[in-house]
Every structure is written in structure tokens, then in C-alpha cells.
């Protein structure tokens, strides 16, 4: 008899999925924005300490170390090298 007073499971499940997914997406987006701002501020500190006005890749790498994300540094360096090679290839292709 208690089943007579329960909401249909399919409807409840659908409502929960849609609301949780939306809230989770918003939370992850907000957390990512805050983390990016924090990492950028830290990199900017390294930049200003070197009397420069433009953040460099090395500032970002040092910020990752400072923020206790040293595991990111090797992959970031690898990605940076790949990017530099791609840019050099594009530059060379334009000259030819």
C-alpha cells in the first residue's frame, strides 16, 4: 500500500539527473574559473617580480610548482614544446 503514495521512479530519476547534472556543470565551471584566476595571479606575481608586464610560459610553470601542482609541469612542458614546433613549422611553410 505504501507504493500508492510514491512518485514514479522514472520521473524522479529524470528530475534528479537533470538537476544534478546542471548543478554539477555549474559547480565545475565555477571551480575552473576560480582555479584559472588563482593560477594566473600566481604566474603574474612571478612576472612582476621579474619586472615584466607579460606572463611567460616559465611564469606559468613556476606557478604550478608554487601552487603544489608539480605533476602538471612535465606535461605542460611537453605541450609547450609541441606548440613551439607547430608554430615554427607554420612559419617555415609561409616562407616557402
> How far is the first residue's CA from the last residue's CA?
81 Å
User: Could you say what the CATH architecture of the domain at 9-70 is?
Assistant: Orthogonal Bundle
Report the average pLDDT across residues: 88
What shape does the CA trace take?
elongated
* DSSP summary, beta strand count: 0
Roughly how much helix do the residues carry, as a percent range?
A: over 70%
- Main sheet: strands, sense, barrel: none
CATH homologous superfamily caption of the domain at 9-70: Histone, subunit A
If helices are DSSP runs of H or I spanning 4 or more residues, what is the number of helices? Answer: 3
Domain Transcription factor CBF/NF-Y/archaeal histone: 6-64
Organism: Acanthamoeba castellanii (strain ATCC 30010 / Neff)
Protein name: CCAATbox binding transcription factor subunit HAP3-related, putative
Pfam family, one: CBFD_NFYB_HMF
Can you offer a commentary on this structure?
It is a single chain. The protein has 96 residues and is mainly α. It has a domain at 9-70: Histone, subunit A, CATH 1.10.20.10. It contains 3 helices and no strands. The termini are far apart. 5% of the residues are buried. One of its GO terms (cellular component) is CHRAC. This is CCAATbox binding transcription factor subunit HAP3-related, putative. It is found in: Nucleus.
Quick recap:
The chain is mainly alpha-helical and 96 residues long. Helices cover 78% and strands 0% of the residues.
Key structural traits:
78% helix, mainly alpha, 96 residues, 0% strand, Histone, subunit A, 3 helices
